[in-house]
Amino acid sequence: MSIDIATAAKVAKLARIRVEEDQLPKLAEQLSGILGFMEQLNEVNVDGIEPMVSVTPMRLVRRKDAVTDGNIQAQVLKNAPDAREGFFAVPKVVE
């Protein structure tokens, strides 16, 4: 698949990146190369192959899912303009 300069400009606009006019041909060439590589990957037969986490056989290290306060309450409140009894103190906004 080949990307033309107008499509490259549209992709740059959608991605919110500024590309100078003289750089658009190079961008179009690079995008075409990426799409060509993706087409190559689509030709590979992956039926019956399970997804991998890593190229080395290993299990993901899992941590216990426990809620903690982080044990850094003093550090968190150190820069607060007003802290009372271990909490942020804010002005009353509801009468």
From TrEMBL:
Entry keyword ATP-binding: yes
GO terms for MF: ATP binding; glutaminyl-tRNA synthase (glutamine-hydrolyzing) activity
Reaction catalysed by this enzyme: L-glutamyl-tRNA(Gln) + L-glutamine + ATP + H2O = L-glutaminyl-tRNA(Gln) + L-glutamate + ADP + phosphate + H(+); L-aspartyl-tRNA(Asn) + L-glutamine + ATP + H2O = L-asparaginyl-tRNA(Asn) + L-glutamate + ADP + phosphate + 2 H(+)
Pfam family for this entry, one: GatC
EC nos: 6.3.5.-
SUPFAM superfamilies: Glu-tRNAGln amidotransferase C subunit
Biological-process GO terms, alphabetical: glutaminyl-tRNAGln biosynthesis via transamidation; regulation of translational fidelity; translation
Keyword Protein biosynthesis: yes
Keyword vocabulary terms for this entry: ATP-binding, Ligase, Nucleotide-binding, Protein biosynthesis
Domain of life: Bacteria
Record note on quaternary structure: Heterotrimer of A, B and C subunits.
Similarity remark: Belongs to the GatC family.
NCBIfam families the record matches: gatC
Its biological purpose: Allows the formation of correctly charged Asn-tRNA(Asn) or Gln-tRNA(Gln) through the transamidation of misacylated Asp-tRNA(Asn) or Glu-tRNA(Gln) in organisms which lack either or both of asparaginyl-tRNA or glutaminyl-tRNA synthetases. The reaction takes place in the presence of glutamine and ATP through an activated phospho-Asp-tRNA(Asn) or phospho-Glu-tRNA(Gln).
Listed name of the protein: Aspartyl/glutamyl-tRNA(Asn/Gln) amidotransferase subunit C
